[in-house]
Specification:
The structure is a homotetramer of 257-residue chains.
Chain A lengths: L4 E3 L2 E3 L3 E4 L6 H11 L3 E5 L12 H4 L6 E5 L6 H15 L3 E4 L12 H13 L3 E6 L3 H10 L5 E2 L13 H10 L5 E3 L5 H10 L3 E4 L1 H4 L4 H21 L21
Parallel strand pairs in A: 3-4, 3-10, 4-5, 6-7, 7-8, 9-10
Antiparallel strand pairs in A: 1-2
EC number (chains A, B, C, D): 2.8.1.10
Subcellular location (chains A, B, C, D): Cytoplasm
Main location (chains A, B, C, D): cytoplasm
């Protein structure tokens, strides 16, 4: 009856991955992440403060259910990304890395060329590589070919909360992928997360939509339920879309009999 | 901490209303409806078989948590609808009625003129009237003016599973309604239901999408969670949609320092 | 080779109907309307100034190619609409009337009940009735039954420029209508107008999008071409939408031979 | 007056580029392309039959207004693409090339890595490179950096006729590009082409939608007008989208005075 997600050597009950950015304070962040029941939480290396242990983000995320996923946010080239990944492996004692390379300061969109280059190097160095990329089906296959453990195509520009604007391409990516597909960026509401799961995504990563909500803890719970709902809907098989109506109530003829 | 929905004299914990059509058999129907935790279940008068008690739909729905909502499905005029409502009040000992008048045999879309006419009569006769209508904001106000207890605008043609195709108008209806707004028809997946709740709908009615799923019980649970998720998201206030990206991970500058 | 549109006793070469509101001045309005080559131009009775002939809107629209279509904009009931139509017949010597009844001051959405009531009266009084209505397929059929000469369903709230947000219902209306279908309200760009025509609409009515453009004359020409393009596309039959790709260029195998 | 498009050393009056695939016969193809008034026509190298001059596609396209644009359709790597481009330069006496590299036989989506690699080589070899790519804003900038003369992002999978499914990203590409942006693939109807132009695209490339229409010549004219309409709408500045209605007809108060 289990419906677990496996990535590399880890198995997850929750298909909702979260992040640590944009929360108003660390306590809020911790409470929301625990409420989400997320088991994989991404953290930017920059935010890891190894000198001031009191306020360090890691202290707040030190919980048995949470695996930390350092990301390379802020780098602009493959070389910088590889270096950041190596640093994070040292600092956080994990060989998992969310590979994010975005040279573009305005839209923060990922660079396909540098991402493939860095992925190839990092895989060889023994990293579990989770690349954040455009919803480009060909790029996804090439990343799979160099040995990444999943692909993380974007739904919409990061922080836009616009939902699955790349729908046509996510469908292709999901149809042809041999590694888990995790929709990352753009998911702005629980219904977006449920929709991604209904399409057959293996997981979603949500950060902004929880962190900037008026009530992050409640919103975290909402996303938890939405991801479960979408996954259950996917497993139970959705009803097909029809062009003509079909009444669910049978027509009563007795009034005209 | 409660977030209950009140219609007329009844209070509901669940904002997922369901129907009884299209299930493969009565046991399946009963199990799915109980799994959905729905407290208001619509039933076509035609399906109520008062002579054959063994197989009667009412036997299967005889559960303390379930309120039956007879509908007038199959009628084509106000006169027929009023007669059907009177019959159902006799048969089911309830003054609640879901008013459905669709002269159109192909798309089963509701008739605005006959619906308003019947609503006015039925309200005067003491019915709690829940009209199924096009997502027409002016019609909703007129129905409210004659005393209906809620409005039930459609999201898409019934049985189409297309979702909230009337979005622009549902937003207006929700913004200006003084009675509960229940999105009815067209909801084909859990994410559609969550989306309706995020918009501020008070409840949704789902039938086809549960009944024709490969696993109606699992799908019923999925809708239950999705409605909860959407409502929680609405209550916690969704993050705004942005035109430019905003990284959730702060940019790290140390690599270039 | 002609592809003319007939409504009542008039035949139109142009399927672009226009309006006279919101232009910065009367000269601008006249020039844009002539540039659009529109042959049916709606005018609010209020704007007809029969006492000040110098600045009267009618002077500017006195052109052999232009038929004036008085509208009842501003009325809130059937009774007011009938009175307005009678006044306009007197003032403008035409029995054509665009029937607009919107009690709602904020969204200016049409009232289905009052519109049907007024249409029935006006048809009996010999008017050519062109009703502006919600994209409600059942209402369209009822209006057809009482003898209107066309139906004018809205694409989106008037002045919103959002395009064909009622697509699902316009398709049904077009499929089942026996009178011309003219998409009115919401058309904000030439592509919206082309799209309406591709769906099989018989004409579109555009006002705001031309009048408030930075260059109304150029925009009027753009709409003229877009309506022609959409109609030609409809007549030539659009290519079907496909789920898998099909290259238009044949795959070359010679490189691998 | 003039609103010309310049790419490398050529100037175009028409912003509609076309292709030669999928037509039922060569005469049909020629007539449709002439009717479209397209000045840049892409042709797959494979279709150029230099031995059988009678039926050769080039004979049919030998017209003073038409510039041929050989494409590399069918290649799967940068190396193959460079070779194909060199062959086409020999055969067609042009240094222009539409760079298409799609290793994926099902969806025919372009490979970002190989495309950038080939573009860099071809630019150095003196080609005017027009790359067909995913609507990836970062890739577009990188291609611009290596010296391509335009970018050709896709609207939807080739041959799908689904329109501008990559809208969110086309907007970004157009906003930040320093070379012309030509929307290629997915444009299935005149309204799609008009929409691309309204967004600010510099041109569109249409093939399937014209070739497989029931009446390719009429459809070609429809696209010609639609591209003009969209461009004129863009130049005249579209009216903004509004959330609340604004009547174009002023409210008449006289009936209530």
């Amino acid at each position: 009856m289990s419906d677990l997600l496996t990535i590399a050597d880890k198995t997850f009950s929750s298909r909702l991955f979260t992040g640590t950015g944009k929360f108003s304070n660390s306590q809020n962040m911790r409470d929301a992440i625990l409420a989400s029941e997320s088991e994989l939480v991404t953290v930017a290396l920059k935010r890891v403060n190894t000198t001031d242990l009191e306020d360090d983000i890691l202290t707040h995320l030190n919980h048995s259910s949470i695996h930390l996923l350092p990301n390379t946010s802020g780098v602009r080239t493959a070389e910088e990304a590889v270096f950041a990944a190596q640093l994070s492996r040292e600092a956080l004692h994990t060989n998992w890395v969310k590979l994010e390379i975005h040279p573009d300061p305005k839209y923060l969109l990922p660079d396909p060329i540098e991402t493939l280059k860095a992925a190839e190097i990092l895989v060889k160095e023994g990293f579990v590589v989770m690349p954040y990329i455009h919803a480009d089906p060909v790029l996804c296959k090439r990343l799979e070919d160099v040995g990444v453990q999943c692909v993380m195509p974007l739904g919409a520009p990061i922080g836009s909360n616009k939902g699955l604007k790349t729908l046509e391409f996510l469908e292709i990516i999901i149809a042809q992928s041999n590694v888990p597909v995790i929709v990352d960026a753009g998911i702005g509401s629980p219904s977006h997360a449920a929709f991604a799961m209904e399409l057959g995504a293996d997981a979603v990563l949500v950060n902004t939509a929880i962190a900037v909500s008026q009530n992050p803890i409640e919103m975290a719970k909402a996303f938890k339920l939405a991801v479960q709902a979408g996954r259950m809907g996917y497993n139970a098989k959705l009803a097909p879309i029809k062009q003509t109506a079909e009444a669910s109530s049978p027509l009563t003829s007795f009034l005209n009999a």
